[in-house]
From TrEMBL:
It comes from the Eukaryota. One of its GO terms (biological process) is SRP-dependent cotranslational protein targeting to membrane, translocation. Keywords: Cytoplasm, GTP-binding, Hydrolase, Nucleotide-binding, Ribonucleoprotein, RNA-binding, Signal recognition particle. Coiled coil: none annotated. This is signal-recognition-particle GTPase. Residues 263-276 form the SRP54-type proteins GTP-binding domain.
Length: 442
């Protein structure tokens, strides 16, 4: 998915002011890439419509459409992976019974071991019950895992009725005040009615606090129907996706969430007990989209934000306004540009300032000023409170100095600088100079 999606997004960047037509084309390509990545067709269609609507609402031609589409796709996928249903929250004051369901081979038994290890490490009293009396060797597998993890287990070589095993096992661990009881069930081969009936009977017998649907991440489009089947049979409350280590494309996860309206709580990424991590929708989507390097992606998004901020500064300056927030934005873009001496001329009146300040270390100065501005309130930053003329000016200065670990005299110094710059901007704004200057220099 990554490559083709990036390719289609790149197309947007090469075409200046992307037309509706181009955006539609790119959205089609993204849709195709998502479907290839096992996201269900109907989900992709829903998503596409939402994104198209979002983008056409943004008529501003200056906005970078590539970034907009990118961000819209990311946001939409994250939203889809974050159902309104909150994950079941285990309480340490009771016995939390958690039943694991899913097809045979999905990774239930392995996931139970990972889950047990994860919480045992955090100090929870964990136990396991093997209700898979269908597959030969199922009990041995669970027993081995439990022994390795030093977690107590319950099961039987002779009892054929999983409901009886479940009842006895849960009763015993309840009595012994275990905080977590994990119930392993049989998956069989297909979604036979027999399997679902068995699950329902076990569920009715032990009344689990949560039922976790374990799905094989390498499964394709079939996941949606599968997840639906399990959700209809028992009350699925969470999803765990396994086998995301190999060639899994991961799109099935979205389908599982959509089908069960349940959140994904963990991901499995290998056969070892440690190959297990809590689910994070944002980084999952980043991987799904092939941006892998999340940092790079975030930087790109950041630069969209920067552009928005720059636009706000320009709009303000054109009106002869220059707030502390604008000043902050200026400091930020200057420090990103590298050498400050090179960009000194970009501040109104700064070339003169540079001379005035002589040998002073400007980078240090800017850093201090940014710290100081971080301690401004929003109202102060936006000029809703004019700190220069506020009756409690001195109090505010002291608060800001305290908050930023600086001396009130340094805050005073920044205020004086701002006053000077704001005065210049105001003059330039009034004389209509800014319009011509800011595009080139600011
Ligand atoms: P169950 O039938 O649902 O209980 O599935 P198992 O837990 O027995 O797992 C079936 C197979 O998948 C086993 O060989 C596991 O080692 C393997 N498996 C489980 N989870 C993962 C995973 O996250 N990654 C990989 N690569 N293999 C896994
Ligand atoms: Mg099993």
């Amino acid at each position: 998915l990554g490559r083709s999606l990036r390719a289609s997004l790149n197309k947007l960047s090469t075409i200046g002011g992307a037309s509706e037509e181009v955006i539609a084309q790119v959205l089609n390509e993204i849709s195709r890439a998502l479907i290839e990545s096992d996201v269900s067709v109907s989900l992709v269609k829903q998503m596409k419509d939402k994104i198209a609507a979002k983008i056409s609402l943004t008529s501003d031609s200056h906005v970078n459409k590539k970034k907009l589409v990118q961000k819209a796709v990311q946001d939409e996928l994250v939203t889809m992976l974050s159902p309104k249903t909150k994950p079941y929250n285990m309480s340490r004051k009771k016995t939390n019974v958690i039943m694991f369901v899913g097809l045979q081979g999905a990774g239930k038994t392995t996931t139970i071991a990972k889950f047990a290890g994860y919480y045992a490490r955090k100090g929870w009293k964990v136990s396991m019950v093997c209700c898979d009396s269908f597959r030969a060797g199922a009990f041995d597998q669970l027993k081995q895992n439990a022994t390795k993890l030093r977690v107590p287990f319950y099961g039987s070589y002779t009892e054929a009725d999983p409901v009886v095993i479940a009842e006895k096992g849960v009763a015993q661990f309840r009595k012994e005040k275990y905080e977590i009881v994990l119930i392993d069930t049989s998956g069989r081969h297909r979604q036979e009615t027999g399997l679902f009936e068995e699950m329902q009977e076990i569920s009715a017998a032990v009344d689990p606090d949560n039922t976790v649907f374990v799905m094989d991440g390498t499964q394709g489009q079939a996941v949606y129907d599968q997840a639906m089947g399990f959700h209809d049979a028992v009350d699925v409350g969470s999803v765990i996706v396994t086998k995301l280590d190999g060639h899994a494309k991961g799109g099935g996860a979205l389908s599982a969430v959509a089908a069960t309206s349940s959140p994904i709580i963990f991901l499995g990424s290998g056969e070892k007990f440690d190959d297990f991590e809590p689910f994070n929708a944002k980084s999952f989507v980043a991987k799904l989209l092939g941006f892998g390097d999340m940092r790079g992606f975030m930087d790109e998004l950041e630069s969209v934000k920067d552009k928005d901020a720059e636009k706000r500064v320009q709009a303000n300056m054109a009106k002869g306004k220059f707030t502390f927030r604008d000043l902050y934005t200026k400091f930020e873009s200057m420090s990103k540009m590298g050498s400050l001496s090179k960009v000194m001329g970009m501040m109104p009146g700064m070339s003169g300032m540079a001379n005035m300040m002589g040998g002073m270390n400007m980078d240090e100065k800017f850093k201090t000023w940014k710290f100081i501005l971080d301690s401004f309130s929003d109202d102060e930053l936006d000029g809703k409170v004019d700190i220069h003329t506020a009756p409690d000016r001195q109090k505010r200065i002291e608060r800001i100095a305290r908050g930023s670990g600086s001396h009130p005299a340094q805050v005073e110094g920044l205020l004086q600088q701002h006053k000077m710059w704001a005065g210049m901007v105001s003059k330039m704004g009034k004389s209509g100079l800014m319009g011509g200057v800011d595009n080139k220099q600011m």
